[in-house]
Amino acid sequence: MASEKAEDVCMALSEMLPADGLGQVQFLSSDCASTKLYAELKCIMPNLQCLALDPIHLCIVYEQLVCDMAEKTPGAVFVRKIMHKFNMVDASLPSQHWGHFYRGYDSRQLSQQEQTRRTYIETGAFAKGKTRKLELVAEMDSSKPFLCRLEFIEALAALAAVFNEDMGRKVTGANQCISHILWCAADPDRAEWYFNNQRFRHTLSHGLS
Questions:
Q1: Looking at the predicted structure, is the pLDDT value of residue 69 above 70?
Q2: What number of other Cβ atoms are within 10 A of residue 156's Cβ?
Q3: 79 near 104, Cβ under 8 Å?
Q4: Model pLDDT for residues 121-176, shown as the tens digit of each residue
Q5: Which residues, 6+ apart, have CB-to-CB distance to 34 below 8 Å?
Q6: How far apart are CA 85 and CA 78, in angstroms?
Q7: 147, 171, 194, 208: least buried by Cβ within 10 Å?
Q8: In the chain, where are the structural domains located?
């Protein structure tokens, strides 16, 4: 593959996979979901309904920064619990609960409350107090999906506050610390691509997701 640009990714897929197979794809997860990638994929996957941001990629980046080869930090364990929720299904909820599939064409800006919570990811100053922060970490149920975007952002804010010792670690070769990477994950565009995982899974028949 020449590069990770959308057009090069699609060219590689079209060369390596049969047209019949590409025509069966309805959902695809990527670590660089974007409007451009969706548009390019749609040209070779005519039945593609939904592109999502891969939830495991954030966990991998976090672990590369804060963990040695022997043991995960408690923060790394918790970030996996957070992102695992994007793979979960609540059979009592329809996919419409989270709105229609996000494709980057419409603006879904953060509310004032979401913006405030997002700032706590970089500052570590989660305003709900020590007891509430610890409760969010201890009581996180990774077997259920997030009900709303605010829940996801608050989970990241609690992660940053409770496991503050991880937040200052920087990406190798870049001047970005883990707290900033988590802050970027709460960007409205990225968050909506994450929530596409839940939207699509909730369109499937029970037991197939």
A1: no
A2: 24
A3: no
A4: 999 887 555 556 667 788 889 999 999 999 999 999 999 999 999 998 876 656 78
A5: 6, 104
A6: 11
A7: 208
A8: 1-48, 55-201
